[in-house]
Amino acid sequence: LMKNGKKHVLFTASFAIRLALVAYGDYQDRTMVVKYTDIDYHVFTDAARFITEGQSPYNRSTYRYTPLLAWMLTPNIYVSMVFGKMLFIVCDVLSGLLIYRILRLRGLRSETARRVSSLWLLNPLPMGVSSRGNAESILAALVLGTLLCMEARHLMWAAILYGLSVHMKIYPITYALPIALMLRTQETRSDGGRWRWRSFVGFIGSFLNQKLFLFASVAGGVFCMLTALFYYMYGWEFLHETYLYHLTRRDIRHNFSPYFYMLYLTADSRWSQWLGLAAFLPQLILLLVASWAFHSDLVFCCFLHTAIFVSFNKVCTSQYFLWYLCLLPLVLPHLRLSLKQGVGLLLLWFAGQGIWLGPAYFLEFEGHNTFLLIWLAGLLFLIINSSILIQIVAHYKPTQAPQRLKVE
Amino acid sequence: MYFELFSVLAFLSRCHCLTEKVEKNENTCGLLKQLLESTSLSVEINKKGLHREVVTTVELSPGELSGVRALLLHRWPRGVFVDPYQLASLRDQSDWQILVDSAIDLEVPAHKASGFVTYVYPTPDGPAPRLIKVTIPIHGRYHEPSFDGKTYTSVDIDAPELLLRTEKCTQLKDLEPHTVVDAPCTPDNSSTCSWVKLQHQQDQGPVSLQFPVGDGSLVTPVCGGTLLVTMICCAALSKYMWKHRII
């Protein structure tokens, strides 16, 4: 009973702090010149306003999300401007709850699970992001929900949540590979692992089983249904702004990506298509290797997938970090790192960002030509991210046969 | 006889009315002419980097200003842009209103963008104030990388044109050498009026902004270095992931 009490205190406190931040943000917006609320929140609200007037949300320029988000935020216009932020902080706390549940399912004691969940619930970064009006917490909740259902073997629900998360943002599509590898029939190796034509055919055949078929059809069905519905409502613009823009995006303005300067200098040359492809190859190779190496531990595999995807992407902004930070608490309890090593890696990660932010500030706000420094800082950040991921992979102690404890 | 006297008097009075009207017209147009001749306009650029502020100060010469409307017309090059959403949020804090003539793409690089025109109405509802001070926030676009070793590119901002009009003066052609320009009457762009443009003073030439630009001559080492580092990181990470794979 006391364990339950402490858990309730944690969740109540984290919700209360976020509520206070939203209230403070409202005060700052009204009184100071520098606004607390992120520009994205105004983009969402404007798009929701267009919907209430019966028009397309894509009339709002730079609205590059699913119409579902604008639909969910229509109470911003009918009820109060602060509804969206309330929704985001609720999803944020819900993400914390899902982290707790997944940790318990993976065999952790209640106290340890609570301590690790507090790394997300009492973390200023997700608090700040949600209270400023970014919608990342919705996606975090969907991805964590998918993983929880997969761990608990509720395939139907996992497939629905997975289809929904891919609809909202494209990057969870990368999870399809480890999910497929996990759900296929695990064949017994009887021929000593030697490559044979039969074993190749058997490998392909192992993907055709009932569980995988069910998952693929439900997830695919949800995704196709939503896509068809919004295509019918908003046409080509929906497809372009929500998906195609992100896939073909060649934002040449400075960002954390190591490819930024290369893409800027070659933006108009005939090599730009080939270079784009060359930039995609390391991402692809790493995702394939990660899927094959860790598909039996889906949570760890998804964390690696997202971290690799973000670090090796052609465009990388700080918003993307939240995509894998919400999965980090699930991985932490199984890391055989000392506290000193862990804090050291964390500081290294922050240092990498700081080294990039310096020359970027001088370029944007002081007008110095620091392009070379930004490029080098981007490469350094990639090296730091790779080193941190190597340390995580090397010190990961996988769970033995998952204990399915009763979830309170 | 009385009839003839009466008709002559009527004719004379009409003449008198007409001349009075012409005189009044000449008076207000003369007022406008006087304003145009002794008004000063200056431009300065504040802040550094990619986000600047263009401050235009206009001092209308002493005179009767009731009924006179002023309009600042900026012609912007394609190397800069204004953020319509930022301008909309500024509307609450300032008394001037701005009209942009075309949709602005916020992300396209300079060589793919085009110039645009903005109309600033210092006091949309009332007569022009004696001193007009308008601050417009602008942002620099990314430019094409240079191939001749130059690290900065220049973007020239021309001084704005001051347009004046008044309801009472309709014979604008009399105000030579000041030219007549057509522009929207109000910020909502519902109608077009004829305005008189102030002739530029010689000393207010275009202001030059410097924006940093990438070095195109380094394209080979940059591409080579980037691909080398990414491939090494990819190889190292793959090796460790394969070594610690969970069977």
Automatic annotation (TrEMBL), chain A:
What biological-process GO terms show up in the record?
Answer: GPI anchor biosynthetic process
**Which GO MF terms are attached to this record?**
alpha-1,4-mannosyltransferase activity; GPI mannosyltransferase activity
Q: How does it sit in the membrane?
A: Multi-pass membrane protein
Q: Which residue ranges does UniProt annotate as crossing the membrane?
A: 77-100, 212-234, 271-290, 297-315, 344-362, 374-396
Give the signal peptide range.
1-25
- Metabolic or biological pathway, per its Swiss-Prot or TrEMBL entry: Glycolipid biosynthesis; glycosylphosphatidylinositol-anchor biosynthesis
UniProt superkingdom: Eukaryota
Query: How is this protein annotated for GO cellular component?
Result: endoplasmic reticulum membrane; glycosylphosphatidylinositol-mannosyltransferase I complex
EC number(s): the record gives: 2.4.1.-
Its subcellular locations are:
Endoplasmic reticulum membrane
- Keywords in UniProt for this one? Endoplasmic reticulum, Glycosyltransferase, GPI-anchor biosynthesis, Membrane, Signal, Transferase, Transmembrane, Transmembrane helix
Protein family (similarity comment): Belongs to the PIGM family.
Q: What does this protein do?
A: Catalytic subunit of the glycosylphosphatidylinositol-mannosyltransferase I complex which catalyzes the transfer of the first mannose, via an alpha-1,4 bond from a dolichol-phosphate-mannose (Dol-P-Man) to the glucosaminyl acyl phosphatidylinositol (GlcN-(acyl)PI) intermediate to generate alpha-D-Man-(1->4)-alpha-D-GlcN-(1->6)-(1-radyl,2-acyl-sn-glycero-3-phospho)-2-acyl-inositol and participates in the sixth step of the glycosylphosphatidylinositol-anchor biosynthesis.
From the Swiss-Prot or TrEMBL record, give the protein name.
Answer: GPI alpha-1,4-mannosyltransferase I, catalytic subunit
TrEMBL record, chain B:
Q: Which residues form the signal peptide?
A: 1-17
What does the record say about its membrane topology?
Single-pass membrane protein
Q: In which pathway does it act?
A: Glycolipid biosynthesis; glycosylphosphatidylinositol-anchor biosynthesis
Which cell locations does it reside in?
Endoplasmic reticulum membrane
TM region positions: 218-237
Keyword Plastid: yes or no?
no
By its UniProt entry, which Pfam families does this protein fall under?
PIG-X
Q: Which GO terms describe its cellular component?
A: endoplasmic reticulum membrane
Q: Which GO terms describe its biological process?
A: GPI anchor biosynthetic process
Q: Does the keyword Protein biosynthesis apply?
A: no
Q: Keywords on this record?
A: Endoplasmic reticulum, Glycoprotein, GPI-anchor biosynthesis, Membrane, Signal, Transmembrane, Transmembrane helix
Its domain of life?
Eukaryota
Which purpose does this protein serve, as stated in its record? Stabilizing subunit of the glycosylphosphatidylinositol-mannosyltransferase I complex which catalyzes the transfer of the first mannose, via an alpha-1,4 bond from a dolichol-phosphate-mannose (Dol-P-Man) to the glucosaminyl acyl phosphatidylinositol (GlcN-(acyl)PI) intermediate to generate alpha-D-Man-(1->4)-alpha-D-GlcN-(1->6)-(1-radyl,2-acyl-sn-glycero-3-phospho)-2-acyl-inositol and participates in the sixth step of the glycosylphosphatidylinositol-anchor biosynthesis. Probably acts by stabilizing the mannosyltransferase PIGM.
Which protein family is it in?
Belongs to the PIGX family.
Q: What PANTHER family does the record tag this protein with?
A: PHOSPHATIDYLINOSITOL-GLYCAN BIOSYNTHESIS CLASS X PROTEIN
Q: What is this protein called?
A: Phosphatidylinositol-glycan biosynthesis class X protein
| Natural source organism | Sparus aurata (Gilthead sea bream)
Q: What is the lineage of its organism?
A: Eukaryota, Metazoa, Chordata, Craniata, Vertebrata
Q: Which gene encodes it?
A: pigx
